[in-house]
Automatic annotation (TrEMBL):
It comes from Pseudaquabacterium rugosum. Belongs to the aldehyde dehydrogenase family. Signal peptide: none annotated. Keywords: Oxidoreductase. This is NAD-dependent succinate-semialdehyde dehydrogenase.
Length: 499
């Protein structure tokens, strides 16, 4: 949060630059949907409509793919250092407009303003990273098995990329998909989440201001009802060579099936069911702080949030007592309140799911230690930060992503038992554990089935690290050198008669 914002101040969430709210698609230029339809954007804190954007259809999606395909031949030939400079200018503009972007994030997504400002920095870190990586997409010279031959492995951009982004991190998700695509020399069509289209449009406006050539980047907004119509165009188009999607596993499976006919390259960052394990030898204070960072960031609306918390029986009560005190102290408020630490959930469906999970757990024998109720006095989309104990593996909150501020705690006795429980899920995105035993750290790290492991750490994300999962949590990686490779393919060149 800005240091000049008093703790009891109200925050004005209107951006200072009006042109960061274009309210239109960008398909080579700012435009309405072909049929003129629009849909409303709601403030989750109040439910009020405060903006509208185009409700696009198949014709708009096709126009974006046409333009991206037409621009690809020229964009791929732009020297890597020039592409890097353009992407870096986009980063610089994001940071120069950090406050305005944060206001948009808080207004349409609901997270506290200080957290939204942090998201902008996080998003920009990916843009900076891939600007720097653009000049390091190196191939290989392969030692030839015979004389008179030269063998090369060249890295080339895959082509037109379709990016489909979620609502929970409207700046970070679009940045870590689009930045590597542009750095690699791909052109992009993008469909942001219907709940949070405004931040994405603002970021594309800044990319345009950075000097990105016409046709390289396009954004098409659509309502929940018309999203399949838009995405199906890209799935069916053989010119769209890659899909990058973050969202639910059922949708990811659908995209994989529908991509089979055109054999697209896929990056799928899907659902999670992260375990958080606290062994008796852990630093309990550190474990509580790690859990607070991992679980309650963005109100629990993250795919890597701990969804199952296992605490060794010898320290269970002490851990729960400390955790409950921290959770009880969280300030729940709209983003306009500078004190807010937990904001509203994204919509009523999200609150209904959270409430269903808590009620079902309690009916099955769990106990509410803190929270466990809607905060109707604040508005329809608020739920109290909650700690449950006595949670068993068959409860809904242990089997499904709650995607809310609920910490379900279970006791365990030994290492083998808890590792088996942690892995007893179709998902494998993130896992966390706390221990001071170096031998145990090695064993458990090897045994956990997840793409991301936090060892004595609750905040693992970084632009230099590969982000992604295994099993039903998808495949492909975002961030790191591996994230750039997702937008490149290899061309093997064998040249003979050189002797």
């Amino acid at each position: 949060m800005s240091t000049d914002t008093p703790a009891d101040a109200l925050i004005d969430l209107r951006p200072r630059r009006d042109d960061l709210l274009p309210g239109r698609n960008f398909i080579g230029h700012w435009c309405e949907a072909r049929d003129g339809r629009r849909f409303d954007v709601h403030d989750p804190a109040t439910g009020a409509v405060f903006a509208s954007v185009p409700d696009s259809g198949a014709a708009d999606a096709r126009a974006a793919a046409d333009a991206a395909h037409a621009a690809f031949a020229a964009w791929r030939q732009v020297p890597a250092r020039q592409r890097a400079a353009l992407v870096r200018r986009w980063h610089d503009l994001m940071m120069a407009h950090q406050d305005d972007l944060a206001r948009l994030i808080s207004r349409e997504q609901g997270k506290p303003y200080a957290e939204a400002r942090g998201e902008v920095v996080y998003a920009a870190s990916y843009v900076q990273w891939f600007a720097e990586e653009a000049v390091r997409a190196n191939g290989d010279v392969i030692p030839a098995p015979v004389s008179g031959r030269r063998m090369l492995a060249l890295k080339e951009p895959v082509g037109v990329v379709a990016a489909i982004t979620p609502w929970n991190f409207p700046a970070a998700m679009i940045a870590r998909k689009i930045a590597p695509a542009l750095a690699a020399g791909c052109t992009v069509v993008c469909k942001p989440a219907e709940d949070t289209p405004l931040t994405s449009l603002a970021l594309v406006r800044l990319a345009e201001e950075a000097g990105l050539p016409a046709g390289v980047l396009h954004i098409v907004t659509a309502s929940r009802e018309r999203t399949p119509e838009v995405v199906d165009v890209w799935l069916d188009d053989p010119r769209v060579r890659k899909i990058s999607f973050t969202g639910s596993t059922p949708v990811g499976r659908h995209l994989a099936r529908r991509s089979a006919d055109t054999l697209k390259k896929l990056s799928l960052e899907l659902g999670g069911n992260a375990p958080f394990i606290v062994f008796a030898d852990a630093d309990l204070d550190a474990a509580v702080e790690g859990l607070m960072a991992a679980k309650f960031r963005n109100g629990g609306q993250t795919c890597v949030c701990p969804n199952r918390i296992y605490v060794q029986r010898a320290v269970h009560d002490a851990f729960v007592e400390r955790l409950a005190a921290r959770v009880q102290a969280l300030v729940v408020a709209p983003a306009t309140d500078a004190r807010a630490q937990i904001g509203p959930m994204i919509n009523a469906r999200a609150v209904d799911k959270i409430d269903r999970h808590v009620r079902q757990a309690v009916a099955a024998g769990a106990r509410v230690v803190v929270g466990g109720e809607r905060l109707a006095a604040l508005g329809a989309n608020y739920y109290a930060p909650t700690v449950l104990t006595g949670v068993t593996h068959d409860m809904d909150c242990a089997c499904e992503e709650t995607f809310g501020p609920v910490a379900p705690v279970s006791a365990f006795d030994d290492e083998a038992e808890v590792v088996a429980a942690a892995n007893a899920t179709p998902y494998g995105l993130a896992a966390y554990f706390y221990s001071q035993d170096v031998r145990r750290i090695a064993r458990v790290t090897d045994a956990l089935e997840a793409g991301i492991i936090g060892v004595n750490e609750g905040a693992t994300a970084a632009e230099a690290a590969p982000f992604g999962g295994v099993k039903a949590s998808g495949y492909g990686r975002e961030g790191s050198v591996h994230g750039l490779d997702e937008y490149l393919h290899l061309k093997y060149v064998c040249q003979g008669q050189l002797g």
